[in-house]
Amino acid sequence: MSSTDDTVPDRSFLKKNEDSSSLSVRAWVRRDALPCKRSHSCEVLTSPTDSSVALRAKDLVHAVQSGTGVRTLCYDSGYLNTIMAKSSITFIDGERGVMRYRGIPIEQLAEQSSFLETAFLLIFGDLPSQTQLEQFSKLVADHSFLHTDICDYMRSFRYDAHPMGIFISSMAALATTISAGDLQHLDKHIYRILGQASTLAANAYRHRIGRAFNEPRSDLGYTENFLYMLDRLSEDDYRPHPAIVRALDVLWIVHADHELNCSTACMRHLMSARVDPYTAIGGAASALFGPSHGGAAEAVVRQLERIQTVDKIEPFLDRVKAKEERLFGFGHRVYKSFDPRARILKEQVEKILELIGVEEPLFLVAKELERRALQDQYFRSRRLYPNVDFYSGVIYRALGFPTDFYPLLFAIPRIAGWLAHCREAQLAERELDLREHTHVIRPAQVYVGAAPRPFVPLHSGNRPPYQERDIECYRTRLSTRRRLGLLSGARLEERIE
Ligand code: SDX
Asked: What is the percent of the chain where pLDDT is above 90?
């Protein structure tokens, strides 16, 4: 809503009203339109810890429309400048590299808390008492056992099916084991989803390596139980190494939530349509699977494997700057200084490599790649810094996880964040401004398609040929071999182009 002609100075300004709770918005709409005839007060949404302010789009639309008679919406591809919800779960300040869960700095939680205690904080809003944490841990552990039908379903996947594909499908399959009426008690499903998510993930891993599934153990901690289900063979008393349990706990604490990232926004979209939480989490995990989002840790390690040695970093960075490659693990929609999680995980890498007792050549490449990128004007000018995925992949590799298992190691902890948003949205609908939270999320669009035109029947002879390239079908060598067989005999002379 600012002047689009540089001969007309931008007259947009905001003036605090007496009550300072709202602002008068007067703006020039365009040089060929009169300024709004009268100022309109817009309610301002402000955060106690954030300097930016937000105006209700509805008020802005009304202010402009009443001045110009034109309904004027904001086009914001990727929602770069759009706020879709109020939330009290996670606060991020991308300029200062600040991240807090329910007001507590991520650095303190990573150092002093456990993943399950952090999950309680995110979901219920405060740190639990000793008794509450014990009760919560027991509820989650008791709900970590799977229906045998779900285990049979998981065994039906190909051995080399991507673990995320198995997990997403199995999470949606869990939804088929609950009755609709049961969905009233969201907290019960919170325990169940948290408990069963790690069992689903462990089973996906065991299926991949051809091992029988381990039953969860309710006497072990959450992360410890996950590693137990992954690695126990026949020992009755197998326990994962406590230092590895702690390392994974820290990884899961920093991955647990991150305000309205792509997958969490997807969760909110699905919950607005009243989807059950299991199916919604399957959808959110699908969004997380993308290499631009939670699939980046896998992409980072594959990128480091492609670079292989320090002397190949420069040519790789040249390709990135020529836009032939992306530097996975770098850049972030919010963090334009540094991602505090990347700093925490970089410290973890050193500890784990020492514990495992291996020299991880990819870590040397990762450190040198980070050093050079941080010195390079291309990345500095675009404020691209290491994000959470830059080092998490190196840690997972050092711990011996298969590369395609990394997105699932991101999804498990992020379920705590998705459930926190799910519960917050449900509470908002009950306790806060009802009008605001019952909308099914449905953004608008700008239509740029064909002008109105009549249907032309196929055999009318008037249908114009399909303009773009002919409909092609990618052919595998197998289908080409088959096709040659079909074309053999009388029409051998036909050659395949
Ligand atoms: C996660 O949102 C969250 O909170 C996500 C997450 C969470 O916890 O949920 O933090 C987890 O998803 C971390 C991000 C993991 N993804 C990657 O590491 C993939 C690589 N990163 C990029 O794809 C990218 O940085 C994004 C997607 C993360 C952010 O992209 P933006 O904010 O939309 O930035 P942009 O695409 O507008 O880029 C601005 C400029 C462009 O250059 P110019 O057109 O100005 O010349 O920066 C360049 C981009 O080409 N750029 C990169 C780059 N990221 C941005 N160039 C090379 N390598 C990159 N990684």
From this structure: 57
396 lines ligand 1 (CB under 6 A): no
- The answer to whether residues 333 and 210 belong to one domain is no
Q: Does residue 446 sit within a domain?
A: no
- Structure token digits, residue 274: 């009243």
Q: For residues 89 and 101, give the distance between their C-alpha atoms in angstroms, rounded to a whole number.
A: 6
**Cα 360 from chain centroid (whole Å):** 28
245's CB contacts (< 8 A; 6+ apart) are 221, 223, 224, 227
Could you identify the residue written with the tokens 């096709």? 483
- Measure 300 CA to ligand 1 centroid, in angstroms: 13
- In angstroms, the first-to-last Cα distance of the chain is 55
pLDDT of 341 above 90: yes
Residues 270, 387, single domain; the answer is no
Task: State the Cα angle at 163 between 157 and 165, rounded to 5°.
Answer: 70
Catalytic hit among 332, 339, 421, 437: 332
Which amino acid residue places its CA nearest to atom 31 of ligand 1?
333
Contacts of 197 (CB under 8 A, 6+ apart): 171, 281, 411, 412, 415
Q: Which atom of ligand 1 is nearest to the CA of 264?
A: 9
pTM across the whole model: 0.85
Q: Is 293 a catalytic residue?
A: yes
Residue 353 belongs to domain spanning? 298-398
If residue 55 lies in a helix (H) or strand (E), which one and from where to where? strand 53-55
Name the residue of 76, 258, 293 whose CB sits within 8 Å of the most ligand 1 atoms, as the mutation to test its pocket.
293
Would you say residue 38 has pLDDT above 50?
no
Q: Which of 189, 389, 421, 437 is catalytic?
A: 389
Residue nearest to ligand 1 atom 39, measured at CA: 382
Final residue of a domain: which of 349, 372, 398?
Answer: 398
> How many domains is the chain built from?
3
166 occurs within a structural domain: yes
Q: Which residue of the set 59, 93, 293, 404 is catalytic?
A: 293
